[in-house]
Structures are given as C-alpha cells and as structure tokens.
Design brief:
Blueprint lengths: L3 H6 L2 E3 L5 E4 L7 E4 L7 E2 L11 E3 L2 E5 L2 E2 L1 E6 L13 E6 L13 H4 L12 E2 L2 H11 L3 E4 L8 H13 L3 E6 L5 H7 L5 E5 L5 H6 L4 H13 L3 E8 L7 H14 L5 E5 L14 H13 L5 E4 L11 E2 L6 E6 L2 E5 L43
Helix pairs in contact: 3-4, 8-9
C-alpha cells in the first residue's frame, strides 16, 4: 500500500532555481542546499529536508506541486489581518508539511502529516487556475497560503498568486516567518500581505520547536522594509513565552521595526501534544497587551477570547483615540475609516491596506467552499 510520502512524491516539480544551490565536491549526484526556509538544509541525493516535502532526486530538488491539503473560506480577520481589507473573504489553501514541529500546533493535521501517523489530511488534486476560479465564485478578495508552512511550498503559492493577481485578487501568507533572503526575494513580486507567527523571544524555546529565533526576526525586518503589509501574532502560552521580560524584549523589537506593525497576542488552548499548561485567560492577554502598548506599539490586539478583552478587539486612531473599527471575534460591528484610510475625526492616516469603502462583511464564520467536492481526493 502506498504511503502518503509515495502519494505526494509524484505530485512534485523541480524547485525554482532561486531556491536551490548545488554544493560541489561530493561524488555522484550533488548535495543541494535548499533556501526555502531558515534551515537552509544541505540535502544529499535521496534525502529530504527538515520539512519532509522537499527532496533531492538525482541532483534535482523536487518540491510540492498540484494538490491542496485543505481549502477553506475565512473572514480575513481570522488570519488575523485587522489592517487589511476588513470584512473581506480570504480564500485559504494549504499543502502538507512544516519546517517546525510545535507541540501546540492548531493545524497539526496538515502541518505534521509527514511526521505524525495520527495527522491525516486527504490531499486533493487541483490546479492554480481551478483554485483561483473557485475563489472568484466564492466572492473572495484575498487568496492566502496557510494551514501548513507556506514557505516550504513557495513555488506552488507563487503560481497560484500569479493567477490570482491576474484576476485582481490580493495575495497573502500566514507563516511562521522562518524565511531566507532568497525565498523572500522570490515571493516579493507576488505577495501583498504577510502574517508572521512570532512564537516568543527566546532562542532556546525556538529550538524546542525545531527552529531558531534570528531568521524570524530577520524576516519581519525584511518584509517591513520591502513594503509588504505585515501583522505579527504571538500565541501566549503560559509558562512558555508569557514572562514579562520576554514580552518586553519582543515588543521592543517590534516597536524598533515600526510602531505601526499590528501585534496580536492570542490565547492558547490545550491542543495536539501540549495539554499541560492551563488555557490563556483574558487577564493574561490584557497584561501582555499593556506591555506592548508600553513599548510604544500603536496597534495591539487580543484574540481568541471574543467579548472578554475590552477594547483590544477594536481599532482606534493612535492620535485622537477615536474608535474606527469595532469587532467581536471575526464580526465587524462598526467601520468608520474614510475612503483613503484615515480617521474621520482628525484625518490621521491609519497604516494598513484599506478598500475605498467598506463593502460589508462576506462572512464572520469560516466555511468550506460550495464546490470543494469537485477537487478529487488523491
């Protein structure tokens, strides 16, 4: 019986030349260095990178292609993007695999599918054109690569983004941010929005998750300097990354990049393999948010506990304090930005990517595409 690895192996193509480097000096087929993520794995012939989905076949780096592990229609606020097209529908797709192995992963069914036999997500054959046409049928404004780590499937995302942009759609990544200059340069012409999951500010803890802190910090700086709209999320895990000192250093870093970068501090709930810590409380989120505001961040939000965190779901003008966008969870209850994205009270421009006018909210709840069953299960 074919394994998942066997099934996916035939749904590959050669890596983008920008993301692979030949390492000479080895007999036979060369080792290849992959530049899709911060691990930058040197991969011998017949071996796979840390992500388990990029592999060296006879001196050619093969990468995922031609399928999705999940497709869902989400409110853009779920990503979360709070300063990008509020109320818009984000047509979200993902493949399988990840370059990290977080014990609390909330998308572990797709991200850990090549590591954990309990992670079962049936891949479905599809094409970039089919996904984009489906997004248009659903009424999407944005197409987002998410659910697994999109950096390790960057070639597939770029092909979809090219088709999406040709139809006037916005594109985005929901990512752990473990990037490299090469993969970011490769993505830059085709990407508008980027959510980075900054999992803390302790390199030792990052290594427990299978990564390193520095590449994530470098990615955040690079994205901001390159003009990609970026929002940063930190899942607050009690006993792991919630210490005052760590949060002060984290938020000071973000403020040093730009005080206009929105920071979302979100509530952990027991999931996957991490069932020891208690769930994050609203008081914990409020404490973290105060630290972020004290660091100078202008836009600090608290997520996953709708209705329990006061004004931390709302967007307010950083100059006059006027309430601009009122939310409850993913539901937008009030929208007051001007057509050029400014405060109606004091005319201060609000950083973000705004529509000329609020078009209403397509959905406040995620849903599966109506024609998802048209994508054949592999």
């Amino acid at each position: 019986m074919a394994t998942l690895e066997d099934v996916l192996a035939v749904r590959t193509r050669d890596a983008a030349p920008e993301l692979v480097e030949r390492l000479d000096g080895t007999p036979g087929a060369p080792r290849l260095r992959c530049h899709a993520c911060g691990h930058q794995c040197p991969i011998p012939d017949g071996a796979r990178g840390v992500c388990k989905v990029r592999y060296n076949q006879g001196g050619r780096l093969r990468v995922p292609w031609g399928y999705v592990g999940g497709v869902q229609c989400d409110p853009v606020e779920k990503k979360p993007f709070f300063h990008a097209y509020p109320g818009a529908l984000a047509y979200s797709f993902g493949m399988l695999g990840c370059d990290l192995h977080c014990s609390y992963c909330q998308n572990w069914v797709t991200s850990q599918a090549l590591r954990d036999p309990q992670a079962v997500a049936a891949p479905r054959d599809t094409t970039p054109a089919a996904l984009v046409q489906d997004a248009l049928r659903q009424g999407a404004t944005i197409v987002v690569s998410t659910y697994n780590e999109p950096l390790i499937t960057a070639e597939w995302a770029v092909e979809i983004f090219k088709a999406a942009r040709a139809e006037g759609l916005v594109t985005g990544f929901v990512s752990n941010g473990n990037g490299t200059p090469r993969v970011l340069e490769y993505l830059r012409p085709y990407i508008d929005l980027y959510k980075v999951d900054l999992k803390g500010f302790d390199d030792r803890h990052y290594r427990e998750l299978g990564g390193r802190l520095q590449p994530v910090l470098d990615t955040i700086r690079w994205l901001h300097q390159s003009g990609v709209w970026i929002e940063v999320v930190t899942l607050l895990v009690p006993g792991f990354n919630d210490g005052d000192d760590e949060l002060r250093r984290l938020t000071a870093f973000l403020a040093g990049v730009s005080v206009d970068v929105p920071w979302h501090v979100t509530a952990f709930h027991q999931d996957y393999k991490l069932t020891g810590p208690a769930n994050t409380t609203a008081d914990m989120l409020r404490r973290a948010a105060r630290i972020g505001r004290d660091a100078g961040l202008r836009y600090v939000y608290a997520g996953n506990l709708p209705g329990r965190v006061g004004d931390l779901e709302q967007t307010a003008c950083h100059r006059c304090g006027a309430r601009l966008i009122v939310r409850s969870g993913y539901l937008i209850q009030e929208y007051r930005l001007t057509q050029d994205g400014a405060c109606p009270e004091c005319s201060t421009p609000i950083p973000g990517r705004w529509s000329r006018a609020f078009q209403g909210q397509r959905t406040a709840l995620p849903f599966l595409p109506h024609d998802r069953t048209r994508l054949p299960v592999i």
